[in-house]
Each structure stands twice: as C-alpha cells, then as structure tokens.
C-alpha cells in the first residue's frame, strides 16, 4: 500500500512497513537529526518542517496514514475541550489529515498512559473523533516482548478503517509469537540479543557502537534499575524534548550504559542503520521509534489486506 507517515522520527515504523513490501510516499518530522537519519537510511521523501507549517493540501493521497501524536493535552481537567488544547496541535493535525485525505486505513501509536488519561475519557474522545471522520476504530495495548522483540515495551496502537470498507474491522492485529510463560515461544532475553557485540571500548567497525559515560547507579527508578540478562530489556527510553541528558538503559554487565548500537538492536533496527547526530540525539531517536520488527508485522497485514481482501 501507499503510505503517508507523519511524525516519522528516525523511521522505525516506516522501515518495517517498507520491509513488508509497502511504499512510503511522503514523510515528515521536525527534528533535523531524525530527518537526516531517515534520509540517509530510508529515503529522501521525508520533509523536515514543523507540522503546523505544512499545508495539508500538499500531502499526497495514500492508502494509509501512520504516525504517533503526543497526548499531553488530554488532561482530566481539560476533557470537555481536549481538541482545542494548544498542546494537542499534532493530534489535531493527524486527525485533520485523516479527515481530509480519507485513506483506507490509519495506524497511530502512543504510550500506554493514553488509556488512563481522564479516567479513560481521552481515548474515548479520540475514538469518537475518528468515528466522526468516517472510521471504525480498534485500540490495542501490546507488549513488544510478545512479538519476538527483546524488550518489555508496552504501546497502544489505534487502528482505523474507513467505513466504505464495511463496519467489520478487516485489519487483524498481529498474533503473539512469544510469551513470559514460554507460550508459544519464550521471550527473547537482552543477553541473547546483544551478547555477540564486542567490547565498545575496543576498536570495531560497528556503526554507533559508543555509549554514554553517565554512571550506572542503581535505584528504584526508570532507567536506573538492574538489567536482568535473562529477561527482555526494559523499555528503551527517550526524552522527547531532548533536554536533561542522555537516557540510556544500564547494560546487564552492570558496568556501563547500553551503546547506541545496542539500544538500536533492542529496537530491532538493522546493524547497518546509522544514526546521525550527537549521542543524546541518537539515543532519543531510538527511544522514540516503533520497533522495526513489529512494524513489519503491521506492514505484512496491510499487504495481506491488499492482496486477499480489498
């Protein structure tokens, strides 16, 4: 299918969709480093600009619109005027793009917290907004570890299908391939995913195999907990505003942080995918991405629909 990608970042979602056989015809992000990374590894079809400055008329028609939008404006105190909140400009743009372009499907990714905002009223508002735009919508909370990704990463996927295709959702969410209980297969551990990498303090030809000098001091706080080598990695983190220093998970050896390359591997980027920018920027790009391997599963479902159903 032909896909338009909004808030593309470094392109984890787009790369997986393309690996499945789909085509990204237009993409956008405001982050210069992320756009440089995307252009170098994926293609020059990405536009570096503030989404608020883009004329929707200039976005091409497509079969699918994909992207993630921030949810800070969906506060409990603001439930009656959610869409009007200034902090929801990106959500408003995504909604407007879907409403005006009327793709057959849309896929939006978000953090788990969006389900509990406003005691659940935020997600109800979002589903209602897209329903009014002509779509039936499903909302799925997925743990990436359940799909063969060496990371316990919980994310929400909001999938919409145009009502012209019927009132029954045709898009089948990917089936789990792994489980904590070993069913159908065991979760993949961080050690098994990373143990082949050489010591980053020794010379190698690996791209981005460098790590933050931010000391490992364990305390019961996100990004500072002990990394169990026999379990999937904790969630690869990102500071969305790029401030506050590097945000990198401790290596399971307890002596350092994960390298940029190792973090990218946990997010299932290929080893020849090079990240552009300073260390903080590279870590942020990786933490903001959708795991490539899971994105490919979503893309394979789009291919199935194109070939067998539509």
If helices are DSSP runs of H or I spanning 4 or more residues, what is the number of helices? 8
Helix content: 25-40%
Beta-strand proportion: 5-15%
Distance between the amino and carboxyl termini: 11 Å
Mean pLDDT: 91
Instruction: Please report the total strand number as a whole number.
Output: 7
Radius of gyration based on Cα positions: 19 Å
Largest sheet geometry: 7 strands, mixed
What structural class is derived from the secondary structure elements? alpha/beta
Silhouette: globular
State the CATH architecture of the domain at 2-178 and 290-304: 3-Layer(aba) Sandwich
Q: How would you describe this structure to a colleague?
A:
By secondary structure, the chain is an alpha/beta fold. It has a domain at about 1-180 and about 290-305: Rossmann fold. It contains eight helices and seven strands. It has helices at about 10-20, 30-40, 90-100, 120-130, 190-195, 260-265, 280-290, 290-310; strands spanning about 1-5, 25-30, 45-50, 65-70, 105-110, 135-145, 155-160. It has a seven-stranded mixed beta sheet with strand order 3-2-1-4-5-7-6, sandwiched between helices. Helix 1 (about 10-20) links the parallel strand 1 and strand 2. Helix 1 crosses helix 8 (about 290-310). The model is unreliable at about 75-80 (pLDDT under 50).
SSE map:
Layout: E1 2-6, H1 12-19, E2 23-29, H2 32-41, E3 46-48, E4 64-68, H3 89-101, E5 105-111, H4 121-132, E6 135-143, E7 154-162, H5 190-194, H6 260-266, H7 279-288, H8 292-309
Parallel strand pairs: 1-2, 1-4, 2-3, 4-5
Antiparallel strand pairs: 5-7, 6-7
């Amino acid at each position: 299918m032909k896909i338009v990608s909004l808030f593309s970042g470094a392109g984890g979602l787009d790369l997986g969709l393309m690996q499945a056989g789909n085509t990204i015809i237009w993409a956008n992000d405001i982050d210069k480093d992320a756009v440089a990374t995307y252009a170098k590894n994926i293609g020059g079809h990405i536009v570096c600009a503030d989404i608020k400055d883009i004329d929707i008329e200039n976005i091409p028609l497509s079969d699918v619109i994909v992207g993630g939008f921030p949810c800070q404006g969906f506060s409990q105190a603001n439930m009656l005027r959610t869409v009007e909140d200034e902090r929801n400009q990106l959500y408003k743009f995504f909604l407007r793009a879907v409403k005006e372009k009327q793709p057959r499907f849309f896929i939006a990714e978000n953090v788990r917290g969006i389900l509990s905002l406003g005691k659940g009223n935020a997600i109800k508002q979002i589903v209602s907004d897209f329903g009014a735009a002509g779509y039936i919508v499903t909302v799925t909370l997925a743990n990436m570890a359940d799909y063969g990704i060496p990371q316990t990463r919980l994310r929400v996927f909001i999938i919409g299908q145009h009502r012209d295709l019927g009132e029954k959702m045709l898009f089948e969410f990917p089936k789990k391939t792994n489980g904590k209980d070993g069913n159908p297969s065991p979760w993949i551990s961080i050690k098994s995913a990373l143990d082949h990498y050489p010591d980053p303090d020794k010379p190698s030809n690996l791209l981005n195999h460098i790590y933050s000098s931010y000391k490992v001091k364990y305390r019961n706080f996100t990004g500072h907990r002990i990394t169990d080598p026999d379990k999937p990695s904790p969630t690869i983190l990102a500071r969305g505003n790029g401030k506050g220093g590097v945000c990198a998970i401790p290596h399971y050896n307890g002596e350092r942080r994960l390298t940029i390359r190792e973090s990218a591997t946990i997010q299932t980027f290929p080893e020849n995918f090079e990240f552009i920018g300073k260390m903080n920027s590279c870590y942020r790009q990786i933490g903001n991405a959708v795991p490539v391997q899971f994105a490919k599963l979503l893309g394979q479902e789009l291919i199935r629909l194109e070939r067998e159903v539509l």
